[in-house]
Amino acid sequence: MGLGTRGSRLGSAEVIQVHLVLGFFVRLIFIVYGEHHDRTNTIKYTDVDYHVFTDASREIAAGGSPFDRHTYRYTPFLAWMLLPNIYVNFIFGKLFFSILDCISSRLMYELLILDGQSKLTALKCSFMWLYNPLVIGVSTRGSAEAVMAVLVLLTLYMMKLRFNLLAGFFFGMSVHFKLYPIIYSLPLYLSLTSDSYCCSWRQFLPNYPKIRLALGALISFFGLTGLGLALYGEQYIEEAFLYHLSRTDTRHNFSIYFYLLYIGADFHIPGLNIATFGPQMILLLALGYKFSNHVDVPFAMFTQTVVFVTFNKVITSQYFLWYLLLLPIIVPRLMVTWQKAVLLTVLWVAAQGSWLLPAYLLEFHAINAFVPIWLEGIAFFCCNVGVLMALISSYLTVPSYHRHNSRKNR
Asked: For residue 217, what pLDDT is reported?
């Protein structure tokens, strides 16, 4: 559907609605195909985690705890949300996640409009999420990343509207749902600094907007966490929080550290956690502070997420959605030619593809490919760092963005 001809007869609100329906329909096709694929193939389309979620919901329906299902290590309220998987139909969760994908795309559109972008630019950028094959695949296979996407975008949307208490509320919910958004605390907090205190130590002092943001976050995080503790006791804290803090996954994954953890699984290596976590933390704080201006917060969150994922000890394909979620919002501020954009995209996709081959040989044919996987992991790490550096150098901060727009308008 061309935006030029069709968009001239429909308002932008109607155009985005039409595409949201189309985006959901595309996902519905994949869901139906996935059900057929699962019945006729040994290698399943549906994500293993989706069965874990459903089994946890089944435990709740039987009057038990979702944590009675081995390997369920998420908020108990996800299992509650997916109870229709038991009472209505197994595919309910996939439909639910697909709807959330469409809501995320609409939120991106609204955020870009609030940022002063044209309606056409906002539409095109929102399509980067709505029609992204990776996003479609993850949601229709039953991964719950779409829930996180909506919560993170609602946080940014409420910040744009200056509803700081609500922004904090959704932020606290996102941290409760998955711990990683806690890395956004610094840029979100500093973005509410008065312009007169910018670039001085006083930007760290609390003010009324910052207090409202923190209060909303504390209420929602501790409210939901306290309710989970009251319902399921210490088992909930152990499985949903402490497990992730101490997790050391020695199975093959995209992380540059996986082989080190694999060969060192039977040995205690002093200082290993500090060695892996240290560079990650330093970069997270540096990027959060560097781009803490209220206009640059989405870019701060994007760069922080890329660093968090790239330097993490465990990386799976779902993790890529954490920063791809923020990419459409920052694209209008990137001074990148289409040739460079294509090159960076091809490099990123190729680095993943080259990793998948030895991983497939190990996973499905039991061929000893640990060293090739490790080498591909190093290549993937270098690719991510290189792409991030290219995007940072191409990003227009607030002063340069205004200068660029003034030159365009002459």
From this structure: 98
The pTM for the full model equals 0.90
Alpha-carbon separation of residue 331 from 83, 326, 328 (angstroms): 38, 9, 5
- Residue 198, Cα to own-chain centre: how many angstroms? 29
Could you tell me the two tokens for 70? 């081995």
In which element (H, E) is residue 222 found? helix 208-232
Separation of first and last alpha carbons in the chain: 33
Q: What is the Cα–Cα distance from 313 to 242, expressed in whole angstroms?
A: 16
DSSP 8-state secondary structure symbol assigned to residue 238: I
CB-CB contact of 252 with 370 (8 Å)? yes
> What count of other Cβ atoms lies within 10 Å of the Cβ of residue 141?
20
Residue with tokens 């907090």, as numbered in its chain: 189
Taking the C-alpha atoms of residue 374 and residue 380, their distance in angstroms, rounded to an integer, is 10
DSSP structure class, residue 69: S
**pLDDT exceeds cutoff 80 at 2:** no
Q: What are 153-192's pLDDT values in tens digits?
A: 999 999 999 999 999 999 999 999 999 999 999 999 999 9
Closest C-alpha among 259, 261, 310 to residue 283: 310
Among candidate residues 145, 104, 155, 167, the one with its CA nearest the CA of residue 309? 145
**Dihedral-angle region of residue 366 (phi above 0 means left; psi in -120 to 50 means alpha; beta otherwise):** left
- As a three-state string, the secondary structure of 293-320 is CCCCHHHHHHHHHHHHHHCCCCCCHHHH
